[in-house]
Amino acid sequence: MIAAIDAEVTILRNLLEKDTLTRAGVDSLLLESAMMGLPPVETLLARDVVSDEEVAQAYADLLGLRYLDLTRRRPSTPWVLSLPENVAKRRNCIVFGEVGGHLVVSVGDPSDPTVRAELHEHFDRSIQYVVSPRYQIAELQDELYGDARRKGARMVEASPMARRTATVSSVGMNLVEQLDSVIDEAVDRRASDIHIEPEADRVRIRLRIDGRLIESRAFPLDAAAGIVSRVKVMSNLDITEKRRPQDGRFTQRSFEQDIDVRVAVLPTVHGERVTLRLLNMDRSNVEFSKLGMEIGCAQAFERLIKRPHGIILITGPTGSGKTTTLYAALQRINSLDRHIVTIEDPVEYKMAGINQVQIDHEHGVTFAGALRSILRHDPDVIMVGEIRDQETARLALEASLTGHLVFATLHTNSAVGALTRLLDMGCEPYLVASAIVGVLAQRLVRRICRKCAKAHVANTTERELMGIPTERGDVEVFRGAGCARCNRTGYFDRVGVYELVTVDAGVSDLLMNKATTETLHQHAVEQGAHTLRQDAVAKVLHGETTLEEAMRVTVAELRDG
To answer: Checking DSSP bridges between strand 405-410 and strand 310-315, what pairing results, if any?
Structure first.
């Protein structure tokens, strides 16, 4: 009851601040509520002064629960049917699914103790509550329970035994809807990958969000074959082949946008696991200014990408954002008077005005072969998705020396490590020294959630790690406390951390003498290069990320991969 009163006070206060209600209006509302014997919130809803969404959000904020928009995230139908319809409608709730071993139930009024009491009596297990607008819950109840009755799907009876043993049954499960729901959830939560993993007794669904895997939901084991078959059909794979890995792709429409889904199927001891890589086809328009580079690095990098020729290397481990940086750079210089061609494996995002070539090993389209052919098509700018061998490296170096601007990526831990990697691949020092104009190393760190960010004064250990002198005054750093927006992680989205090394006369001389990575790094720092660690610490001090994230992603910056 206390939470309900607090919610009403919060809602009334907000309405006063927005001038939706006057003081006199509040007094009139309270009098009307008392006369009708209804809570003020019910009177507000009846008079259309406040919306269901505003009430649900107020409850979520007050009780520290997640607000869930059921028009964007659909519940799992089998789980919905695990709660008797009369109970669900009487308590204005709907069972959403299972996450991390907890049953997720969406309720309209989380402050009502009778709702929790009845649900805990029915499900003898841990329950995680979320808050949704009442009308959304009611509409889904009518739709899903109504469909189940028409199709004759089995629903749990409200008997004492059913209350203790209620679980998901795959009977009547619509696998098309379930897979669509998984993809919609992943898109809604900004996931980059979906992992569908068969286990001994269930099929686990995990999402990679901001670089970290979290458990989303689970299906019964007997649904595994159907889910995998559905994915194979959508991506034109062989549904009868269960012993070999397979790769494919399909396009899915989700929340009014087209999502390119890359599929990888791998046999395991419990069955076939599936990884879905989600690529928003609109992300190719990422703005150069939003990459997260500090102003000096951004200006220097922009000068490099506007040069008429030379090679610019982007380096970093898998998943460090290299492709996004490349696309942003190409979009920055894309114009009617420039012929830009890319060679990619795979083509992740389609860009208007740019010719993109997909590597196809089965038909002999390799990086080296495609690069040779492209040079006969009069390009101004060439992007090589990845330099993997000596032949591709040498062709790229030679192309830059014949008047082309070349972008390419390498998997190394540091910027100067990319230079020594080319030497290790057998490229002549004079070619590397004369062709490379700059190398950008990068990582991705998780951003602190702006809604729950809290500041604290850095302690001695934190100051030492950031290289801040003890005599300097108090230094504030931030951390996310955890809220509904960030799923209690304290982080929301990611930002790049960069290290740019331009190849000057000093670097060229060192390359000609086959200098070590350490020597090249020392020279770059002496010439003012901003290292990955320095850029990460700067983002800590600016309140963009935490010190833990900064240390995590830069721990191996001096070790060449």
So the answer is: parallel
Which structure tokens are listed for 470? 């003890």
508 alpha-carbon distance from chain centroid: 39
Element (H, E) at 312: strand 310-315
Token pair belonging to 547: 């010190």
Contact by Cβ (8 Å): 297, 321: no
pLDDT by residue (tens digit) across 155-180?
444 433 334 334 444 433 467 777 88
Would you say residue 3 has pLDDT above 80?
no
Q: pTM to 2 decimals?
A: 0.72
In percent, the amount of the chain with pLDDT more than 70 equals: 84
Contact in structure between 366 and 385 (CB atoms under 8 Å): no
Cβ neighbours around 140 below 10 Å, total: 21
- The Cα-based distances of 391 to 310, 316, 401, 465, 527 in angstroms read 18, 21, 16, 42, 32
Q: Write the CB contacts of 134 (distance below 8 Å, at least 6 apart in sequence).
A: 52, 55, 56, 92, 108, 109
**Paired sense of beta strands 476-480 and 453-457, if any:** antiparallel
Contact of 463 with 475, CB cutoff 8 Å: yes
Contact status, residue 392 vs residue 351, Cβ threshold 8 Å: no
> Which residues touch 305 (CB under 8 Å, ≥6 apart)?
312, 329, 332, 333, 405, 407
Q: Is the pLDDT of residue 60 over 90?
A: no
Cα gap 303→130, rounded to integer Å = 49
Pairing of strands 191-198, 271-280: antiparallel
Token code pair at residue 257: 């946008």
Q: What is the pLDDT of residues 443-466, one digit of tens each?
A: 999 999 998 999 999 988 888 889
Q: Is 207 exposed, middle or buried (0-12, 13-18, 19+ CB in 10 A)?
A: buried
Tokens of 389: 């061998």
* Arithmetic mean of pLDDT, 319-329: 91
Distance CA 349, CA 468 (A): 41
Candidates 97, 106, 101; CA nearest to 484 is 106
d(CA 60, CA 451) in angstroms, rounded, equals 14
107 and 78 Cβ atoms separated by less than 8 Å: no
Residue 1 pLDDT class (50, 70, 90 cuts): very low
Contact indicator for 479, 546 with CB cutoff of 8 Å: yes
d(CA 542, CA 298): 17
User: 257 - beta bridge partners?
Assistant: 254
